[in-house]
Amino acid sequence: MTTARTPETVTVLRDVRPWGGEPVDLHVADGRIAAVTPHDPAAGTAPEAGVVDGRGLLALPGLVNAHAHVDKSWWGRPWVSYGGEATTQGRIAHERAHRDELGIPGVDVTLTVLREFVRHGTTAIRTHVDVDLGLGLRGIEVVREALAALNGAVHAEIVAFPQDGVLRRPGVLDLLDAAAAAGAEHVGGLDPASIDRDPVGQLDGLFAIAERRGVGIDVHLHDGGDLGAFQVELMIDRTLRAGLQGKVNVAHGFAVGDVPASRQADLVAAMGEAGITMTTVAPIGAAPLPVHALRAAGVAVGLGTDGIRDLWSPYGTGDLLALTTQLARLSRFRYDEELVTAARVATSDAARFVGRDVHDLVVGAPADVVLVDAENVPDAVVRAPRRALVVAGGRVVARDGDVLV
Fold it and tell me: Which one of 137, 171, 218, 340 is most buried, by most CB atoms within 10 A?
């Protein structure tokens, strides 16, 4: 395992351009932004402890990976060829058959993935961690140990995720309840209709845990068309009846992108009224989510990497800014304000996905900052330039691709 180092503590991040604006100095105290003042070029430039020169670079808030699976990767291991049947059920079976031989979940490989996130400017994540009858809660323990080794460089919320189904495996609901009781911030679900073949039963079980333990719900929903839309409608109804507005997320939600326009409009409006959020991994080949319509209806949208080189797919690098480029292209964003929206989805708008009230370059926010050499935000989104500096919680955690934790 990589030994955690002590990164440089920042007191002033000078001469940076938040969101491409005028140069300012960000003053940091106790890991948060304490003040934002206009940059004075005439001020002294002599080296001073805690004062970091931003060199006039564009500053973004730390990237937020709102849908990750850091417990399942083989990143850093010898190449693993893709195999098994290319369906949801086929991928589940293939993963169960081969994860042990790859040492998944394991602290070392999880830490390797997290460090790649840091390298690319991600400072906060919501990660789904498998909970099943074979693993128990071991995956959550592994992820927490890896996060601890990073010494606070990545803020994380955990979703206890039933990748092998909920009701069809007796005992999984009890494991999810135990995970919530032990501190997991959310319980997950998976295709209530097509995996468990009992959408009402699965959702009732998840909502019962959420109400009892005070946690959130985050459901993977791959089913498209009418079947997927029906399950979203069930979640809307259950959310309102349970009073869990703001605590329920639909991950993927392909149906929201592929149902007819009139039904989509009704579905999006109802989701907004119920305070349901959505996360996407901007998948190539799926109908893109109506990002503008969702945001206009008050439906927060988050962006995530999904799995990174795992038994489901050999793809992924952990670079969320590059994925922001993909989201923008799939959404057919071209205007500057649309490209800024894509950047907001990957940063400040995602605060709620990681349990934060604010995640931005403003007073009171966590001092999570990413510097890139870009003219403006649209330029940063379309090019995804190298991260020149990454600050997390007021500490320099990566510089020019070198991870310092």
Answer: 218
